[in-house]
Design a protein that fits this description.
Chain A: GO terms for molecular function: ATP binding; hydrolase activity; protein serine/threonine kinase activity. The complex is a heterodimer of chains A (about 575) and B (about 100). Chain A has about 575 residues and is an alpha/beta fold. Chain A is built from 14 helices and 25 strands. Chain A has two domains: about 220 residues, Rossmann fold (3-Layer(aba) Sandwich); about 220 residues, P-loop containing nucleotide triphosphate hydrolases (Rossmann fold, 3-Layer(aba) Sandwich). Chain A starts with 16 loop residues before the first strand and ends in a 5-residue tail after the last helix. The chains are: A alpha/beta (about 575), B alpha+beta (about 100). The interface between A and B is medium-sized, with 24 and 32 residues.
């Protein structure tokens, strides 16, 4: 064992490792493959052994400045170059830069005659020459078991292989040896006997007609490693393994709130909407507007300048855009602005683990703040309910760790709320909105409840969920004698109230007029009485004046008479 | 057949003077003298000296005898101790046997 003092870990020298550069694998292995030692990568045909080992070499050359030799026993170098070009690896260029060297070993039994003793020094010399010519640090032997079919003397091959692996260790090159899976053994010819440091098993499993690629580290001497079967994906970026089975509940939480895009819903959720980084389940029977709610949330996210990924398992992106257009939501604009990514795939396109992996990949790539899955119910078609639950747990965990808000929609077939479990994830989510049909008075209307919403005050009321040309809104339902009133019954009630209002207004105005009239009559009566009084007063005054005048005149007359009688005073 | 004037071009790949290599060369010379007198050329290539030559003829095992001419190309690996096999491999039949 080579023990090298490590600067980063001053406590104990640990096993030096060579990074593979394969997404996720270095995390599972705690840093890569054992440096300077051989690693066996085994699996059945078509499980990705060659891609795995080629990626190890190319990443080594491009990212870690470690040249590598690829010794191919099965494919010709030209074929290999073309095959891996689909992964974006330019082997021609790497060969010219002397970072990669390809060597095709051709072994044809019919051309070879064996007589007596021999050894495989030729192979050693070839490999040694290839390693020395570019100063290789990494070597791939793909698939060395071909020796067994090309040569007959197994005793010699076995002895020479043992010598080869020792020799590779002495050369201090990190080696990948690939091997075909055998019946009941890891490899057909028992290579695992010789390579005892690290064994990685690749598997390609088809269950229910759905294929899943799995990777497992069978052994890794001198290192801790993940022991689970990890699903991996081979796509245009090569292999990615996501160690999604880590389940901690220690992520940070945010108390920031984000709007759901429906003002009525926000006000039901304490007036501010969902918590950032929370998980929201929208469930309901068919045609209750789950996708519309999700679309509205996506729209709101993009409008407020954040990115969103919408995974659709039922409708195509174009279909969603068209349908959302009909309720006044323009998702196309957000797609054009690269704020929204609409990804549609049939659930059956790959296994559940693969879905999880591709979702994780997309999320890491796009870095959104909101992820929508519509609907998760369809995933059940590729796995059992418990499998779906396990995948969703890990997905929620991953997204919450990244502070991403996630909205799931789920179709419930059963309208009975108490029995409804919705893939039994309702206990995992932070908020659960239930959209359900309210059938009354010969029509169906939508009612929305907030079943739960962790950590915030939320309304316990049912609201009527109205989808119109201008979007979604929630309106208060009317409580009538027969229960809640929705739809046309609600409108009827509204109309009735309006009519009553008008009639009352009318009645009030009629009374007002009557009062006015009465007042006029009274006032005119008062006026005539006043007139009467005035004339009476005049009459009375007239009499008084006349009397006064008479009295004055009579006094005057009396004085005059007195004077005329002789001035007696 | 021996009168077609063909020359057997033979290459023997070895890696240093090991017992197997020496045995192979001795055996080869013996058979050639016996069956292909004056009609053969033996080229001995030591891969320790010319490692780059191993790739061209697809050499894995040591020693390997490669017959390039006459066609078809054949490879015989081992110390060439089995005379019958070597002769079959080289397309040489013992002169005593009729065509």
């Amino acid at each position: 064992m080579i023990i090298e003092p490590s600067e980063s870990k001053p406590l104990l020298p640990s096993l030096p490792k060579a990074c593979t550069g394969i997404k996720g694998l270095d995390e599972i292995t705690g840093g890569g493959l054992p440096q300077g030692r051989p690693t066996l990568v085994c699996g059945s045909a078509g499980c990705g052994k060659t891609v795995f080992s080629m990626e190890f070499l190319v990443h080594g050359a491009l990212m870690y400045n470690e040249p590598g030799v690829f010794m191919a026993f099965e494919e010709k170098t030209e074929e290999l170059t073309i095959n891996v070009a689909s992964l974006g690896f330019d082997l021609e260029k790497l060969q010219q830069e002397r970072m990669i060297r390809l060597d095709h070993v051709h072994l044809e039994r019919s051309e070879i005659e064996e007589t007596g003793e021999y050894d495989l020094d030729g192979l050693f010399i070839r490999l040694g020459h290839a390693i020395d010519s570019i100063g290789a640090k990494r070597v791939v032997l793909d698939t060395i078991e071909s020796l067994f079919s090309g040569l007959t003397n197994q005793a010699i091959i076995r002895a020479e292989l043992r010598r080869l692996f020792e020799w590779l260790k002495d050369k201090k090159v990190t080696t990948i040896i690939t091997g075909e899976k055998g019946e009941g053994t890891l490899t057909r010819h028992g290579l695992e006997e010789y390579v005892s440091d690290c064994v990685i098993l690749l598997d390609h499993r088809v269950e229910n007609k759905i294929s899943t690629r799995l990777l497992r580290i069978v052994k890794y001497r001198g290192s801790v490693h993940g022991t689970n079967e990890y699903p991996f994906l081979i796509d245009e970026d090569g292999i990615s393994v996501v160690p999604v089975t880590s389940l901690g509940l220690s992520h940070d939480v945010s108390s920031e709130r984000i709007s759901s895009g429906v003002s009525g819903l926000d006000s039901m959720l304490g007036g501010k909407g969902f918590f950032r980084g929370s998980s929201v389940l929208v469930s309901g029977t068919a045609g209750t507007g789950k996708t519309s709610l999700a679309g509205s949330f996506a729209n709101q996210t993009c409008v407020s300048g954040e990115r969103c990924i919408y995974f659709a398992f039922e409708e195509s992106p174009k279909q969603i855009i068209r349908n959302m257009h009909s309720i006044g939501i323009d998702l196309q604009a957000h797609v054009d602005n690269h704020m929204l990514r609409l990804l549609a795939s049939r659930p059956t396109i790959n296994g559940l683990e693969m879905h999880l992996l591709s979702i994780t990949k997309q999320v890491l790539d796009f870095d959104p703040s909101v992820v929508i899955l519509d609907p998760i119910t369809n995933l059940v078609s590729v796995g059992s309910v418990s499998e779906v639950k396990s995948v969703l747990i890990r997905l929620i965990d991953f997204l919450q760790g990244a502070d991403i808000t996630v909205m799931f929609t789920a179709l419930s077939l059963n309208d009975n709320i108490s029995e409804q479990t919705d893939e039994s994830i309702s206990s995992l989510v932070d908020a659960w909105l239930l959209v359900r049909d309210i059938e009354f008075n010969g029509e169906r209307n939508r009612g929305l409840y907030v079943m739960k919403s962790r950590g915030m005050k939320h309304s316990n009321q049912v609201r009527e969920f109205v989808i119109s040309d201008s979007g979604l809104d929630l309106v208060d339902v009317y409580m009538g004698r027969d229960g809640i009133l929705t739809g046309s019954a609600r409108e009827e009630q509204q109309l009735a109230e309006k009519t009553e209002n008008v009639i009352r207004t009318h009645a009030v105005s009629r009374k007002d007029k009557e009062i006015e009239r009465k007042r006029t009559v009274l006032e005119s009566k008062i006026a005539s009485l006043r007139e009467e009084f005035d004339s009476m007063q005049d009459e009375l005054n007239k009499t008084y004046v006349e009397e006064e005048l008479t009295r004055k005149v009579m006094e005057q007359n009396r004085q005059e008479i007195l004077q005329k009688r002789g001035g007696i005073q | 057949m021996e009168d077609t004037g063909e020359i057997w071009e033979l290459r023997l790949y070895i890696a240093g003077k090991t017992a197997k290599s020496v045995a192979a060369l001795e055996n080869l010379k013996k058979y050639c003298e016996e069956y292909l007198k004056d009609k053969y050329v033996i080229e001995v290539i030591d891969l320790l000296v010319h490692p780059q030559l191993a790739e061209g003829d697809q050499i894995l095992a040591i020693p390997t005898l490669v017959k390039k001419v006459p066609e078809p190309i054949r490879k015989i690996i081992g110390d060439l101790s089995n005379k019958e096999k070597v002769l079959v491999g080289l397309n040489i039949r013992p002169a005593k046997k009729p065509e």
